Amino acid sequence: MIFPWNKHLRSNGSVVARSRGPKDDCCQTHKLSAELLQSALSRGEIWPAFQPIVDLQSGAIVAFEILARWTDPIAGAISPTQFIPLAEQCGLIGDLTDKILREACVIALSWQGSFVLAINISPVQFHDHELSTRILRTVRSSGFPVHRVHVEITESALLENDPSVHATIASLKASGIGLALDDFGTGFASLTQLHAFPFNKLKIDMSFVRSMTVDSGSRKIIASVIGLGQSLGMTVVAEGVETEEQATLLRRMGCDLGQGWLFGKAENALETGKLIERRLVGDLSKRKPPAQLFHRVHQLDALYTASPIGLCLLDTNFVHTSVNPRFSAMFALSPDDMIGHTVHSFMPAHEADRVTSDLVKVLNGDTVVIEDYRPIGSDRVFFVINQRVDDDDGVAIGISVTAVDVTGYKTLETLLSQTEDHQRWSIDLSPNIPWASDAAGVVNFMGPTPDCSKIDVDARIEDWMARMHPEDRLRVRQQWLAWIPSGKPFETMFRMRLGDDGFHWMLSRAKPHHGPDGKIIKWYGVITEMAAQQSLRDQLLRLESVGASPQDRSHDVTFICADNNYDQQIERPAKVYQKSEPHDGLSRSHYVSMLMRMFEGAPIAMSITTSDTRMSRYVKVNAAYLKMTGRSWEEIRGKTLLAAGSAIDNSARDRRHRLLLDQGYYELEEVDIVRADGSTVPTLISAQRTTINGTSFDLEIIVDVSERLRQQREAENALKVSARTDALSGLPNRAYFDEVLLQRIAQARGPHDVLVLAYLDLNGFKKINDTLGHLVGDEVLKVISSRLRSEFATQFVARVGGDEFALLIETDKFGAIGLKEMLDQRMQNIFKAISISEQTVTSGAAVGVTILCETDNAHSVLKRADDYMYIAKSTSQRIAVVYLGDIDQNFRGNEKIISAAT
After folding, report:
1. What pTM was estimated for this model as a whole?
2. What count of other Cβ atoms lies within 10 Å of the Cβ of residue 564?
3. What percent of the chain has pLDDT over 90?
4. Where residue 615 sits, what CATH number does that domain have?
C-alpha cells in the first residue's frame, strides 16, 4: 500500500518471488508455494509490523496498522503483494491473519497508551461464516482490549451484497470492534452502503493524497470525502502522506488522521516500542471530533451575519455573491438588494466606475485599502479593505471586501485635533516660552515669544538669538555647554528684547530627559519673563489674602521667594505685602468668584495641598485633577497624600517635597500618576510653594503627556520597521536578515531542531532589466517577493541583495523528511510566468539549500548555501535547486564546477 513493492510473477500456477538476497546484490528467483508459506507461518518467519497513524492536529499517535512481513532465510524480505495473494488462493489467509493479529496484540499489551490496532481483512475471508468468532477469540485470548481493535474492509468486500457479509460486519460491530472502510475512492461503494454499514473510520486512498499538491481534482475529491465522512460521524484517515505540504493541506481541509512515511514506516516490535517511548500517544476514543461540515457552515453563516463589521464577497466579474447586513446597510440596502448585482446597479455611474477601477487592481494582485470611504448620501465613515481570494492553485476566484465603521474614531480624531490646536494656542498665549535641545545642547525647538508671528521653528530659534542682549549671548552659551556634562537641571538668566519695550530679564530653566539605557537623549526647558512671573505671584497673593478669614485680615501675608544665584542681579520687590483691594475695578467677591471659576474649570489638572512632607493634606483640587486620577473629592478631601485610597505617586513625592523645601518650586518633573483603577498616566508636574499667615501651601499643575509618548513610540516603531524593511519588496532587508539569522542559530541548538537556509539568486534578471527596462524589473521583483511571502507565510524570507533572497525554515528531524519535495514544488509555483503591461515575463532562480550543522556559525552556514547556489547556477537551468547531499549524485564527475563554486 505505502511501499514500492515489486510486482509478483506467476509461473505454472505458482508465485515467483523476485527479491534481493541477504548476502549479495544479485537478483534471485524464489518460487513460493503453499507448503513454503505454511512452513514460514510455523517457523515464525512471518511477523507483524506496525505503522503509526497520527492525529493531524496534535501529532499524537492514536493507532497502528498491523502489516504482515515475511523474512525468508534464503530469499530475504518477500513482498506482501507476493505472499498475500498466495495465502488467499491456498486458504491460508485465515491462519495468517490469526497469527499476525495474535502476536501484535500480545506485543502491544506491554506498551503504554490507549492506541488502536487496525488490521486489514481480505475480501475472501468474508466467505468464512466464523470470521467474527475467530477474530474475537484471537483478540480475547491475547488479553488486548477488544474495543481497541479495528478491522479494515476494502470496498470490494461490500459489492457482493451477501447477507453473510452483513451479518459478519454486524457481529464485529456488536462485539465492540471498530470498522474502517479502506482505500475509499478507488472502488464502487455507494452512499447507500456507507449509510447501511456502521463504519467508524473512512480511509482515503493514497493515490489521491500523492497527487493532491499538483492536481486540483484530487484536492476536491479529498475535500468531498472528508466532508462526507464527517457528516456521517466517521473519523477520516488519509493514507500515503509523504510530505509536510500534503499534511498541511489535509489539516486545512479538516482531515482527522494521517498515515504514511512522513509519520513513520512500518517497523518491527522493537523499533515501534522505542517510537512510543519518544512520541506523544493519544486516545482515539477521547479525541474530540471536529464540527460536522454542515454545522461549520451554519456556524460560519451565523458569524458572518452577526459580524459587527461589513463583509462581502464578489466573484471575478465583480458580482456580489455574499453580503452581510452590516455591509448592505452602508448603502441603505438589504443583502438581497446587492446579491447578484454589481456596484453599477446601486451607485452613481462615476462612483461605480471608480470602485470598479479599484476592483480591477485587486484582481491583478494589489490589496486596495481606503481609509476614509464615505458612501454617497451617508454621514458615516468607513475603513475598507479589498483583497483578492485565490484557490489552492493561486487562481483568483473572487474578491473579499471588509468595511469597518470608523465614524466615532473620526469624530474623536477631529476633537483631539481641535484640543491640540487649543493647547497650541494656550502655549502661544502663555508668558512661558518652551524650548528643547538634543543631547549635545543644540537647540532644536523654540516656542513663540508673545510678540512673535513666526511659525517656523528654525525662524523662531533665529529670532530668539537675535533678541538676546549682545553681552549675554556668549556668556549664556558658555554656561550652557559647560553645564551639559553634569546632567543636572540647568538655570540661568539673560536679557531679551520684547516688542518696543527694550530689554527684559528672562529666567531659563531646563531638565534632561533620559532614554531606556539611562543616557540623556534630550533637554526640555522653559523661558519665563521675570516680570510676568512676579505678576503671577502678586495675583496669587491677592487671591490668598481675599480668601483669608475675617479674623486673619489684620495680619500680614508673607510670600517666601526661592533663593537663587541671581539675587544680586535683579531688583526683587519687597517680600512682605499688605492686603489691598483689587486695582482692576472688580469687587472683592466678583474677583474671588472669577479666580475660583478659573481654577475649577481649568483644562489642566491642578491641586492645592499643605506643605508638610509626611502629613500633607488636600486643600483643593479642580475637576481636571479628579478626572485624571479617577477619584472623587469625597475620597480624598482632608486626607494626607500618603493615605490609602488617596495617594497617587508615593515613590516620587518625597523627592519632590525636598525640591520644594530646598528651592521653593520644581518644573517639568516626570511622574507616572497612579489612578484609582491601578492604571498609570505619564505626566509632567510643575509646582510652586507659598506661605499664607505662616502656613505653607503647594500648588501643583499636572499635564498628561500619554498621547505625546504614544506618538513618540509610534514614530520610533515606524523608524525601526523602516530601517529593517526593503522598500521595493516590503520584505526584511539584509541587516534584519543578519540579525534574525544569529537569533535562529542560537535557538536551533536542541537535539531535534533543524534550521534550513535557502539562498536564491534570480536567473536572467539582468536581461529583463536591459531589454524591458527597470520599471518592469522592479515589478518582477515585487511579484516574486509577494509569491515568496505567500508560499512561505510562516517562515522568514528576506531580500538580501538586488536579485538575491534568503529563506530560513525552522523545523525538526520529523518535519524535514519531505522538505526537498516541498521546496521543489514551491519554487515551481514562485517562478511561474508573470504578466506585466500585456507582456509575459519568465524568470527562474538558482537555489542553494543547506542545514545548520553543530559546528556552524552564521558565516559558515551562509557561505555553504551561497556555494550551493553557485553550483545550481552553473547548470544553466531556469530553476535549479541544490541540496546538502545532492552534490555527489547530481554533479558527480564535474569537479571543476564544484571546486570553482566552493
Report:
1. 0.42
2. 13
3. 24
4. 3.30.450.20
